[in-house]
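Run folding on both entries below.
>entry_1
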Amino acid sequence: SRTGYFELTYSCATGDINSDGTIDVLDVVQTINIAMSFMNPTETQLCAADINDDSTVDILDIVLLINIIIGR
């Protein structure tokens, strides 16, 4: 039945900005590009890049991403 209601859901893997299944230096580069406004990210990329979930992608997210990569 048609209700006129449409719900769009997306999921993201925190830290996997390029959605390749691994968290690595390429994700760091894309996070830097997002933080510096060098690229227009998709909603999924924003979700994955905002690691500390404060609604902004900044240096704090980059540091957390690097800590994820080096295993701290």
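>entry_2
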Amino acid sequence: AQLRAIALATERKLLKSVSLFDVYEGGQIPEDKRSMAFTVEFVPGDEPFEADAVERFVKKILKNLKNELDIDLRS
């Protein structure tokens, strides 16, 4: 819920939804961590936006998640 709230607060005007679709624990994930995957749906404003704009929005959301919750990002 915290991740969703932070993401939605980051891009209120353009972010339609944030949905958790996978949680993984174990394997190569440290015992006190979990891997979480989300689907993020954007809604364009007056004009459609390009892939680079979406990438900027996602980077901004990830930066805020890192700052607010000290998450570790995997690539």
